[in-house]
Specification:
Layout: H1 2-19, H2 23-47, H3 54-69, H4 78-94, H5 103-121, H6 123-129, H7 133-158, E1 162-164, E2 168-172, H8 173-189, H9 198-226, H10 241-245, H11 248-263
Antiparallel strand pairs: 1-2
Helix pairs in contact: 2-3, 2-5, 2-6, 3-5, 5-11, 6-7, 6-11, 7-8, 7-9, 7-11, 8-9, 9-11
C-alpha cells in the first residue's frame, strides 16, 4: 500500500508540474477532478439510499469551472443566479416523480454536492488567474498537500493519541501536529514563488494547514455516514478523486479570498 501511495503521488506531482504553467490546462484538469469528485460524491449518497439527480448535478457542476475558465459571466452576481436556476430546475424535475418522499433531502444534497465539490474546488482556477497566479497556485498546493503528507508520515510512525476516533480512528494528534508543521514548511517554500513576507507566509501556513485538516476530517465524516472507506479507487494507494480533493475543498476558496482581499490589497 505504501509503495502504491508513493508511486501514485510521484505521478500526480509530475502531472501537476506539467500543467501548472498553463491556465487552460489547469482549468481542464480541475474540471476533470470535479467531474470525478461529483460522480463519487453522488454515488456515495446513492449507497445511502438518497434519491438524487446524479447526472444533472454533474452537468451543473461541470459548467461552473468551465465558465470560470473561459471567463463567462452573465452578470456580476452570476453565481447566485446560477444557484437559483439550478434549484428551480431540480424542483421542476421533481414534478415528474411518482412519489413525494425524499424531495427535500434529494434537492438539498444535490445542491450541496455542487457547492461543496464543484464551486469550492473551482477556486483553484481563480487562484491561477490572479496576478502571481502560478506561484500562488503552487503555494496553496504545497501548503495543503505537504500537510497531508506530514500528517500521514508522522501519524503512521509516531501517532498514539487519537484525534477524533468517532470520525476517523486512524488519525492522531501527533499526525495533526506533524501535518501543521509540514504546511508551514510548504508556505516557506512558497516564498521562492510569491512576493509575500515571511511572517504572513507562516500565518498562511498555520491557517490554511488547519483548514486542510478540517477538510480531511469533513470528508471522513461523510464517508463514515455513507458507510464507505474510500470515495473510490481511481488512484492506487490513495483512493478516489474525493480522497485527493478533500483538504483542498476548504483551503482553495479561503486562500483565494485572503490573497485577493487581504494580503495583496496592501501592495
Amino acid at each position: 500500500m505504501l509503495f502504491k501511495r508513493i508511486l501514485t503521488s510521484i505521478l500526480l506531482i509530475g502531472m501537476i508540474a506539467l500543467v501548472v504553467s498553463s491556465q487552460l490546462l489547469v482549468g481542464l484538469v480541475v474540471t476533470l477532478f470535479i467531474i470525478g469528485g461529483l460522480y463519487e460524491f453522488f454515488t456515495m449518497l446513492e449507497k445511502k439510499g438518497i434519491i438524487i439527480y446524479k447526472y444533472f448535478g454533474i452537468a451543473i457542476g461541470t459548467i461552473i469551472p468551465l465558465s470560470i475558465m473561459f471567463r463567462f459571466e452573465l452578470t456580476r452576481g452570476w453565481e447566485l443566479f446560477f444557484a437559483v436556476l439550478g434549484l428551480l430546475s431540480l424542483i421542476l424535475m421533481q414534478f415528474r416523480r411518482h412519489q413525494n418522499s425524499g424531495v427535500i433531502v434529494g434537492i438539498s444534497t444535490t445542491l450541496f454536492g455542487i457547492l461543496y465539490v464543484s464551486w469550492f474546488f473551482s477556486f483553484l482556477i481563480r487562484i491561477r488567474h490572479l496576478e502571481q497566479g502560478l506561484g500562488l497556485l503552487v503555494t496553496v498546493l504545497l501548503i495543503t498537500k505537504l500537510g497531508d503528507i506530514g500528517a500521514y508520515v508522522v501519524g503512521s510512525r509516531l501517532g498514539k493519541t487519537p484525534l477524533m476516533p468517532r470520525i476517523s480512528p486512524h488519525k492522531s494528534v501527533e499526525g495533526a501536529a506533524g501535518g501543521l508543521l509540514f504546511s508551514i514548511l510548504g508556505a516557506l517554500i512558497g516564498k521562492t514563488l510569491v512576493s509575500i513576507p515571511y511572517p504572513q507566509l507562516v500565518l498562511l501556513g498555520i491557517f490554511i494547514g488547519v483548514l486542510g485538516e478540517v477538510g480531511d476530517l469533513s470528508e471522513s465524516l461523510m464517508k463514515r455516514d455513507c458507510g464507505v472507506k474510500d470515495s473510490g479507487n481511481s488512484f492506487p494507494g490513495i483512493g478516489g478523486f474525493q480522497d485527493l480533493m478533500d483538504s483542498l475543498l476548504f483551503t482553495a476558496p479561503v486562500f483565494y479570498f485572503l490573497c485577493s482581499y487581504v494580503i495583496f490589497r496592501h501592495y
